[in-house]
Amino acid sequence: xxxxxxxxxxxxxxxxxxxxxxxxxxxxxxxxxxxxxxxxxxxxxxxxxxxxxxxxxxxxxxxxxxxxxxxxxxxxxxxxxxxxxx
Length: 86
Ligand SMILES: [Zn+2]
Prior knowledge:
3 strands, three-stranded antiparallel sheet, binds zinc ion
């Protein structure tokens, strides 16, 4: 059995997250990233319509990622990037 190196799980956030700053979509998802089964999980937030996301920082707690997306304490969408701008 082949092991997947990068595991991602997406969970829709609904009203918890603000709409996308780029396209206005409400389809905002929490992304759980796991390098492998033994690694810690890191969280990010992404818009599935335009693929904008909290790009360069992943968070150890899901609410930290959501807070960053919403423009909370240290966040301002973190280092958000639009995929077209890369
Ligand atoms: Zn978007």
